[in-house]
Amino acid sequence: MHCGSAWAGYLTRAREPFRAIAGFALSSGTLKLGLLLVLAVDAALALIALSRYQSKPSFAEFDGLVLEAWIETVTDENSSSDIPHIAIDDGVRDRAWVFKVSRQQYASGIPGTVVHATVNPRRGALLEIRPASPTEPPSAPQTGS
Q1: Ranges of H-type helices in 68-121
Q2: Most buried pick, 11, 36, 45, 90, via CB within 10 A?
Q3: β 59-75/97-100 pair status
Protein backbone atom coordinates (compact mmCIF):
# COMPACT_ATOMS: atom_id res chain seq x y z
CA MET A 1 0.00 0.00 0.00
CA HIS A 2 2.78 2.42 0.85
CA CYS A 3 4.39 2.00 -2.56
CA GLY A 4 1.07 2.56 -4.36
CA SER A 5 0.33 5.74 -2.43
CA ALA A 6 3.81 7.04 -3.19
CA TRP A 7 3.24 6.41 -6.89
CA ALA A 8 -0.14 8.17 -6.74
CA GLY A 9 1.52 11.12 -5.00
CA TYR A 10 4.20 11.23 -7.69
CA LEU A 11 1.59 11.28 -10.46
CA THR A 12 -0.30 14.06 -8.71
CA ARG A 13 2.86 16.15 -8.36
CA ALA A 14 3.82 15.44 -11.99
CA ARG A 15 0.51 16.94 -13.17
CA GLU A 16 0.84 20.10 -11.07
CA PRO A 17 2.98 22.11 -13.55
CA PHE A 18 0.51 21.39 -16.35
CA ARG A 19 -2.43 22.43 -14.18
CA ALA A 20 -0.58 25.57 -13.17
CA ILE A 21 0.19 26.50 -16.77
CA ALA A 22 -3.38 25.80 -17.91
CA GLY A 23 -4.82 27.76 -14.97
CA PHE A 24 -2.40 30.61 -15.60
CA ALA A 25 -3.39 30.81 -19.25
CA LEU A 26 -7.11 30.54 -18.65
CA SER A 27 -7.24 33.01 -15.77
CA SER A 28 -5.14 35.70 -17.46
CA GLY A 29 -6.72 35.74 -20.89
CA THR A 30 -5.27 36.13 -24.33
CA LEU A 31 -1.96 37.72 -23.32
CA LYS A 32 -0.90 34.62 -21.43
CA LEU A 33 -2.29 32.37 -24.16
CA GLY A 34 -0.17 34.29 -26.66
CA LEU A 35 2.88 33.76 -24.47
CA LEU A 36 2.17 30.03 -24.38
CA LEU A 37 1.79 30.03 -28.17
CA VAL A 38 5.17 31.73 -28.56
CA LEU A 39 6.76 29.18 -26.23
CA ALA A 40 5.20 26.31 -28.21
CA VAL A 41 6.52 27.73 -31.50
CA ASP A 42 9.99 28.19 -29.96
CA ALA A 43 9.96 24.59 -28.75
CA ALA A 44 8.94 23.37 -32.22
CA LEU A 45 11.71 25.39 -33.86
CA ALA A 46 14.25 24.03 -31.39
CA LEU A 47 13.17 20.47 -32.21
CA ILE A 48 13.51 21.16 -35.95
CA ALA A 49 17.01 22.59 -35.44
CA LEU A 50 17.98 19.59 -33.33
CA SER A 51 16.74 17.14 -35.95
CA ARG A 52 18.70 18.95 -38.68
CA TYR A 53 21.83 18.89 -36.53
CA GLN A 54 21.46 15.17 -35.83
CA SER A 55 20.73 14.35 -39.48
CA LYS A 56 24.29 15.38 -40.42
CA PRO A 57 27.04 12.82 -39.85
CA SER A 58 29.50 13.46 -37.02
CA PHE A 59 32.44 13.13 -39.42
CA ALA A 60 33.21 12.85 -43.11
CA GLU A 61 36.43 11.98 -44.98
CA PHE A 62 37.34 12.88 -48.54
CA ASP A 63 40.21 13.64 -50.86
CA GLY A 64 40.02 17.16 -52.19
CA LEU A 65 41.90 19.96 -53.84
CA VAL A 66 42.94 22.96 -51.73
CA LEU A 67 41.57 25.89 -53.69
CA GLU A 68 42.70 28.73 -51.49
CA ALA A 69 44.33 29.52 -48.16
CA TRP A 70 44.12 32.97 -46.61
CA ILE A 71 44.44 34.82 -43.34
CA GLU A 72 41.69 37.10 -42.13
CA THR A 73 42.67 39.85 -39.70
CA VAL A 74 40.04 40.62 -37.08
CA THR A 75 40.46 43.77 -35.02
CA ASP A 76 38.63 45.13 -32.02
CA GLU A 77 39.24 48.10 -29.75
CA ASN A 78 42.37 46.79 -28.06
CA SER A 79 43.85 44.10 -30.26
CA SER A 80 43.88 42.31 -33.57
CA SER A 81 44.18 38.65 -34.40
CA ASP A 82 44.88 36.67 -37.54
CA ILE A 83 42.55 33.77 -38.35
CA PRO A 84 43.75 31.34 -41.04
CA HIS A 85 41.20 29.79 -43.43
CA ILE A 86 41.32 27.02 -46.04
CA ALA A 87 38.89 26.25 -48.89
CA ILE A 88 38.82 22.62 -50.12
CA ASP A 89 36.91 21.27 -53.14
CA ASP A 90 35.74 17.69 -52.58
CA GLY A 91 34.73 17.25 -56.23
CA VAL A 92 31.15 16.32 -55.26
CA ARG A 93 29.39 19.38 -53.85
CA ASP A 94 28.73 22.57 -55.78
CA ARG A 95 30.38 24.58 -53.02
CA ALA A 96 33.81 24.20 -51.48
CA TRP A 97 34.30 23.40 -47.80
CA VAL A 98 35.62 26.50 -46.00
CA PHE A 99 37.22 26.15 -42.58
CA LYS A 100 38.83 28.28 -39.88
CA VAL A 101 42.00 26.33 -39.17
CA SER A 102 45.04 26.20 -36.90
CA ARG A 103 48.43 27.51 -38.03
CA GLN A 104 49.62 23.92 -38.50
CA GLN A 105 46.63 23.03 -40.68
CA TYR A 106 47.12 26.27 -42.61
CA ALA A 107 50.72 25.27 -43.36
CA SER A 108 49.46 21.94 -44.78
CA GLY A 109 46.89 23.59 -47.02
CA ILE A 110 48.97 24.86 -49.90
CA PRO A 111 46.68 25.85 -52.79
CA GLY A 112 46.77 23.28 -55.58
CA THR A 113 47.62 20.41 -53.20
CA VAL A 114 45.45 17.29 -53.12
CA VAL A 115 44.74 16.49 -49.48
CA HIS A 116 42.88 13.91 -47.43
CA ALA A 117 40.52 15.75 -45.06
CA THR A 118 38.54 14.57 -42.07
CA VAL A 119 35.80 17.04 -41.16
CA ASN A 120 32.92 17.45 -38.72
CA PRO A 121 29.95 18.63 -40.84
CA ARG A 122 27.87 19.32 -37.72
CA ARG A 123 30.30 21.98 -36.50
CA GLY A 124 31.85 22.88 -39.85
CA ALA A 125 35.28 22.01 -38.45
CA LEU A 126 38.36 20.56 -40.12
CA LEU A 127 39.57 17.78 -37.83
CA GLU A 128 42.57 16.59 -39.83
CA ILE A 129 44.30 17.47 -43.08
CA ARG A 130 47.22 15.65 -44.67
CA PRO A 131 48.58 15.28 -48.19
CA ALA A 132 46.75 12.55 -50.09
CA SER A 133 48.85 9.46 -50.72
CA PRO A 134 49.88 9.30 -54.39
CA THR A 135 49.58 5.49 -54.38
CA GLU A 136 45.93 5.51 -53.32
CA PRO A 137 43.18 6.38 -55.81
CA PRO A 138 41.14 9.44 -54.81
CA SER A 139 38.42 8.47 -52.37
CA ALA A 140 34.81 9.50 -52.63
CA PRO A 141 33.39 11.32 -49.61
CA GLN A 142 32.63 8.92 -46.76
CA THR A 143 30.46 9.72 -43.80
CA GLY A 144 30.10 8.25 -40.36
CA SER A 145 27.86 8.80 -37.40
Answers
A1: 103-108
A2: 90
A3: unpaired
